[in-house]
Design goal:
This protein is α+β, with helices and mostly antiparallel strands. The protein contains 23 helices and 17 strands. The chain folds into four domains: 3-43, no CATH class; 120-228, Gyrase A, domain 2; 246-439 and 552-721, no CATH class; 467-546, Alpha-Beta Plaits, CATH 3.30.70.
Length: 722
């Protein structure tokens, strides 16, 4: 009986099955599943920067509108519209107007109908007394459960009240419960619900039961949520607007991503031979799954989201590099290829898991506490990391064994790690520390220089600083690309703003131009320039001051999220490595990388906007992952050390052993971003350049700073102990 022949057929069938799966994923990404084309790349939701959407302008009703109420309304409305997309923008326009921009939709009327007209909401007892208003409701959510007696599904609306509402509602329901009286929920002078009170509600939480179906419950919950805004709003106008970056930005970004990916796969094959082939197959599967799941999970993809994908691809490559480097080390130690593959995967496991888990912790916190762009970035990053771990630890392992069993069993297909002389990275540690400190101080000094020269420490974009929104109707129907070529230079010259944001109002010849805040003289200069160069009707030019789309509350949420994520990552590293010095060193290195990139923004005066947040968060994830790989090797070498081996030797050997990984991972990740920088439009390059600086800085700190920092802390602790 030909056992070897049967085994060969088995492995060929497994390879064929893998290829069939990849083809099916490719077909799904290309065409989707079913009439809704679920999983198709063309159905991926794109943000305002990539695809445009609906723009709605509301005006506050009444004369006693305070800025505090406007700020509160903007923030709460931002939370409301995130039900449509995490990338929705809400910002103040003028003194009493609020703009809402929701990406990925084209029917303004449908959005207005679903969102509802923000109006007054009151809870009134049967005697006509107002118990509380919508501002006393902090949460309103539809829910369902199965009745234990009948087994039928019941639909409810769950309310959570504020502390003020809690007491008022407790008093009213205690009285109403005596005769099961009703409490009316009145929205815009119409009764939308009148539930009976069955018992006193004193804990600030209640349920409205008796909903006939889910849609009814969701509509009531939505009405209560929108009615809880501090101000009553009326709709002024609604438009469908085009992408901020334009079609050229999307097409060049996609092409750049494809070229970068191909270069990475070629690099991996050239360096790791048959292991590189396995990596290429696994990474291709990763990209297909990522595109399909972005649509399946209804996530919105924006420029910051692309940063999350780039980071997760970098971490997927990193995991493969760690594994293949380990396999080569085991082959150098004399193991067979089969044994080397098994041991290599096992030894790489801890570094891959620890590096990815710390980033997952950060992503989960950012999803929970962040809002807007931060939440969208975190969602994309989390999906990418989970997929990268699956493809590296499961798919890549399967492919490696499959290729081995198909006949690639000779060591020449894998390569042997050459013995490398230990490099003394510790000796010049004071020089490294000094260089880093000098660069950080230089960057901070430039914030002071900027303060005196441009009026602010950084070149804050409209998202951070607000500005002026100018609506212009042209005689000619420009495409966005034509507008950027013909009109944008005139706007830049008149306003002095090198990076204005432009959106086309679909179905018209009008454009919305957002610039830094313009004084009266500059507005008049812009108007005159448009009249002189394009013969526009000056009466069709309107301008309003707009607030930052990133509100103070959103900034506070972001800062809180980053602090909480950092603390949790520190605790995880402390627990996993059983030494707080590892955790402290990792966090210091993380701050080192962030501060240097922050300084680069100050020196280069690149606009600080939504992409700034994404760039910083990407660097945090990359930095912590690079650091953990080295710390994992230090931990391993510490376990093997004898009593007479000093810590300097362990740190130097650990960094040297992981140096190939540090170099190769940096090359592959930087290549992805570099191609994006070379091929991208101006706004893409402004995003990619700081990211490249951060990736280079992360590679430098992981090799030159983190190990020496841990050693310094270790030696200090040893001296204190003695």
């Amino acid at each position: 009986m030909n056992t070897n022949g049967n085994s060969k057929i088995k492995y060929i069938l497994e390879l064929a099955a893998l290829l069939v799966v990849m083809v099916l994923i490719g077909i799904t990404v290309a065409f989707g599943i079913g009439p809704t084309k679920t999983g198709a790349a063309e159905n991926i939701k794109l943000g305002l920067d990539l695809a445009g959407g609906v723009s709605i302008t509301y005006e506050a009703v009444g004369e006693d509108v305070t800025q505090e109420d406007m700020n509160d309304t903007v923030y709460k409305l931002q939370l409301r519209v995130q039900n449509y997309s995490t990338e929705s923008d809400v910002y103040q326009e003028g003194a009493n107007r609020i703009n809402v921009e929701i990406p990925g939709v084209t029917d303004a009327n449908a959005i207005l109908e679903e969102l509802g007209k923000p109006g007054s909401l009151m809870f009134i007892d049967m005697e006509g007394n107002v118990i509380m208003t919508g501002s006393d409701v902090s949460e309103a959510q539809a829910a369902s459960y199965s009745d234990q007696t009948t087994g039928l599904k019941q639909y409810i609306v769950s309310l959570v009240l504020t502390d003020t509402g809690k007491q008022a509602f407790a008093d009213a329901t205690t009285k109403a419960a005596e005769n099961h009286d009703q409490i009316m929920i009145v929205y815009d002078n119409m009764i939308v619900s009148a539930p009976s009170v069955q018992e006193p509600i004193t804990d600030g939480r209640c349920q409205i039961t008796g909903m006939p179906d889910w849609d009814t419950a969701e509509n009531l919950a939505s009405t209560i949520r929108i009615g809880s805004l501090p101000l009553e709003l009326k709709e002024l106008r609604s438009n469908v607007v085009g992408a901020k970056l334009g079609e050229e930005a999307i097409s060049t970004s996609l092409l750049a991503g494809l070229i970068g990916f191909i270069l990475v796969v070629i690099f991996m094959i050239c360096v790791y031979r048959i292991s590189g082939v396995a990596s290429g197959i696994a990474l291709t599967l990763y990209v297909g799954l990522m595109l399909g799941l972005l649509n399946a999970f209804d996530l919105t993809l924006t420029l910051p989201g692309i940063a999350g994908i780039i980071l997760s691809i970098g971490m997927a490559v990193d995991a493969n590099v760690i594994i293949y480097a380990r396999i080569r080390e085991e082959l150098a130690a004399g193991k067979t290829v089969q044994s080397a593959i098994k041991v290599g995967f096992n030894k790489a496991m801890s570094a891959i898991v620890d590096g990815n888990v710390t980033t997952i912790i950060a992503a989960l916190v950012l999803m929970y506490k962040g809002s807007g762009t931060i939440k969208g970035f975190a969602q994309t990053l989390l999906l990418g990391i989970v997929l990268s771990m699956f493809t590296a630890l499961v798919v890549s392992r399967f492919i490696m064994y499959l290729l081995y069993n198909l006949g690639f069993q000779d060591v020449k297909w894998y390569g042997i790690q050459k013995e490398r002389k230990t490099i003394n990275f510790v000796k010049p540690k004071n020089l490294f520390f000094g260089i880093s400190a000098a660069v950080i101080v230089l960057g901070l000094c430039f914030t002071l220089v900027n303060k005196s020269s441009i009026g602010s420490s950084m070149n804050y974009s409209i998202e951070f600083a607000g500005g002026t929104s100018t609506n212009v109707t042209f005689n000619e129907d420009y495409t966005l690309a034509e507008f950027e070529t013909a009109v944008l230079p005139v706007i830049t010259e008149a306003t002095g703003d090198a990076t204005p944001q432009v959106q086309k109002i679909e179905g018209s010849t009008a454009f919305i131009i957002k610039t830094k805040e313009l004084d009266t003289a500059t507005r008049e200069k812009l108007n005159q320039a448009l009249v002189d160069n394009f013969a526009v009707d000056e009466s069709l030019i309107t301008a309003e001051t707009i607030s930052p789309s990133i509100s103070s509350e959103m900034k506070s949420d972001a800062v809180t999220a980053v602090i909480v994520a950092t603390i949790l990552m520190l605790l995880y590293i402390w627990i996993r490595f059983s030494d707080i010095k590892f955790a402290a060193s990792a966090v210091v290195a993380l701050l080192h990388d962030v501060l240097i990139v922050f300084g680069f923004y100050a020196v280069s005066r690149i606009a600080v906007g939504n992409t700034f947040i994404a760039c910083m968060l990407t660097i945090v994830g990359y930095s912590i992952n690079a650091t953990i790989v080295i710390f994992d090797r230090i931990r391993e070498n510490l376990a093997d050390k004898t009593s007479n081996v000093d810590y300097n030797e362990i740190v130097n050997r650990s960094i040297t052993q992981t140096l190939t990984r540090s170099i190769y991972t940096s090359i592959t990740t930087i290549v992805m971003v570099l191609v994006l920088y070379i091929m991208g439009v101006a706004s893409i390059r402004e995003f990619a350049l700081p990211l490249i600086v951060g990736l280079v800085c992360g590679a430098y700190s992981s090799v030159c700073i983190t190990g020496s920092l841990w050693l310094t802390m270790k030696n200090f602790a040893e001296k204190r102990r003695k």
